Automatic annotation (TrEMBL):
GO biological process: ATP synthesis coupled electron transport
A single cellular component GO annotation: plasma membrane
InterPro entries: CPA3_Na-H_Antiporter_D, NADH_UbQ_OxRdtase, ND/Mrp_TM
Coiled-coil parts of chain: none
Superkingdom of origin organism: Bacteria
The protein's name in its UniProt record: Na+/H+ antiporter subunit D
NADH:quinone oxidoreductase/Mrp antiporter transmembrane domain mapped to chain residues: 130-419
Length: 501
């Protein structure tokens, strides 16, 4: 099964090269892209089953043994992330194909979109599977290079301006990450994460803390935690709907994944737990207050994206099995739900011509299916029982109560407040955009939404509901993954030969 591990990275890269060569054949490009991402989805499912039953699946790239060579590791956490991300990227791809103008118009030529989208997918999966810090950095740079193209797709003035901010912030975080990689290598003589798990423990506490904070700063920018999140609400809403959706669902979660991986494998013990809890609480509260103040649906969703990152950081800060399990469950839930809501925002824009809540209304009457597609994931995001959002938040809040102490109790209160304000924000959108009297221009004829766009969005809504129905088995997977993260031994033994210190 180790031969399957590189495929989620290699297949999209080969597909990107092939679609670039076939830039004049849009139908073939679409078929190749769908085939590549469908293949990655199947491989990811097999890897998750294998990791769950037998432990981490490891491949030594080029036959060079660890810690000398590049290692790709599919443990339960990595395999689960690859599986969910591949399902989301496939649905977003189908949505973009159905959109039509997002692929074939002057603003988004096919020769650019499909190769770049596949490169983005390869970067995301490489980051999840990376077994050393430098390969993790490479994964980030691959996805960021692709995202630079996608976020400015069309070359409009607004997209270039906001895209420039995104590029500058991304380059800054990458420089910080690269500096941290250099410092880690200078201090330990290795970048293999399994080997670092042992060597970092032997460093003086001050040096170890410096390395930890440098990595956290770099990953915090990428994950958009407060106060490093100001760039996100201005950058994401201006991109095309499929691009915004996949960015919202995945790119910040790669940063969260890196925080989970490094804080558990490299820096266990909760040395910065207090800092992480403060950051988590501020991220939740400030983000949702920003969402409540918005009058544009895309910007509102961008602020909720920032806010709910705080739940995941809270789980990491607790560093218990229950906290980590809740954080992983919430990452999986949020990837799906946040992507879905941004796809729905694209459908609203397609049908109403705008996402400005001051200019639209009556969508529940004009497009009832669109109302359903918004209502279900919106209630899921708000944490209404029995949806997966409620179950994920409940798991995190229970872990916070079990931890005891003043700060966890404050975070439990902040999480509850954030959930209530999320419900208020979602209800406000429903009342204004869907329930009140129509405000669409009378000259605009009733439009029929493209079937593939609706179908792809419906599939993601159904996936969110499936997480609710399969919450028991999913929590079992996340609990096992959290246990392995806490123990570290299964990961280290799978990667390193017994005689390597």
């Amino acid at each position: 099964m180790s031969a399957l591990v590189p495929l989620p990275v290699v297949v999209p890269l080969l597909g990107a090269a092939l679609t670039l060569l076939l830039s004049g054949r849009p139908r073939l490009q679409r078929s190749i892209s769908v085939l590549c991402l469908s293949s990655v989805l199947v491989v990811a499912a097999v890897l998750l089953v294998q990791a769950y039953r037998f432990g981490p699946v490891v491949v030594q790239v080029g036959g060079w043994p660890a810690p000398v060579g590049i290692v790709l590791v599919a443990d339960q956490l990595a395999a689960l992330m690859v599986l969910v991300s591949s399902a989301v990227t496939l649905c977003v791809l189908l949505y973009s194909i159905g959109q039509g103008r997002g692929e074939t118009g002057e603003t988004a030529p096919v020769s650019i979109f499909h190769p770049t989208y596949l490169v983005l997918t390869a970067g995301v999966t490489n980051a999840f599977l990376a077994g050393d810090l430098f390969n993790l950095f490479v994964g980030f740079e691959i996805l960021l290079a692709a995202s630079f193209v996608l976020i400015t797709l069309g070359g409009t003035e607004v997209r270039l301006r906001t895209g420039s901010t995104y590029v500058v912030v991304s380059i800054l975080s990458s420089l910080l990450f690269l500096s941290a990689v250099g410092l880690v290598y200078a201090a330990t003589g290795t970048l293999n994460m399994a080997q670092l798990a042992g060597r970092l423990d032997a460093l003086p506490s001050g040096v170890r803390l410096t390395l930890q904070l440098t990595l956290l700063l770099a990953f915090g920018i990428k994950a958009a935690v407060f106060p490093l999140s100001a760039w996100l609400p201005d950058s994401y809403p201006t991109a095309p709907a499929p691009v915004t959706a996949v960015f919202a669902g995945l790119l910040t979660k790669v940063g969260v994944y890196a925080i989970i991986r490094t804080e558990t494998l490299l820096f266990p013990g909760g040395q910065v737990a207090t800092l992480l809890m403060v950051v988590a609480g501020l991220t939740m509260v400030v983000g949702i207050l920003g969402a409540v103040a918005q009058s544009d649906l895309k910007r509102l969703l961008s602020f909720t994206l920032v806010s709910h990152i705080g739940y995941m950081i809270f789980g990491v800060a607790l560093s218990s099995v229950a906290g980590l399990s809740g954080a992983i469950f919430y990452v999986v839930h949020h990837i799906t739900i946040q992507t879905t809501l941004f796809l729905v925002a694209g459908l609203v824009e397609e049908r109403a011509g705008s996402t400005d809540l001051r200019r639209i209304g009556g969508l529940a009457r004009i497009a009832p299916m669109l109302g359903v597609l918004f209502f279900v994931p919106a209630m899921n995001l708000a944490g209404i029982p029995p949806f997966s959002g409620f179950l994920g938040k409940l798991g995190l809040l229970q872990a916070g109560v079990a931890a005891g102490g003043t700060l966890p109790a404050v975070l439990v209160a902040a999480g509850t407040l954030t959930s209530l304000l999320t419900l208020y924000a979602a209800s406000r959108v429903w009342n204004i955009a869907f329930w009140r009297a129509p405000r669409l221009a009378t000259t605009t004829p009733p439009a029929r939404l493209p079937g593939m766009m609706v179908g792809a969005t419906t599939a993601l809504v159904a996936l969110g509901v499936l997480f609710t129905l399969a919450a028991g088995p999913l929590f079992q997977v996340t609990a096992d993954a959290a246990t392995d993260l806490r123990e570290r031994t299964p990961y280290v033994r799978a990667v390193l030969p017994r005689d390597v210190p």
